[in-house]
Amino acid sequence: MVGRFLYAYGGQLDLRALTCHLTAGDLRDHYFAHKSWFFGSVLASLVFSVAKPLALHGHLPDRMNLAFHVFGGLMVTVAAITRREWFHKLLAPAFALVVLLYISLLFARLR
Question: Domain count of the chain?
Answer without folding.
Answer: 1
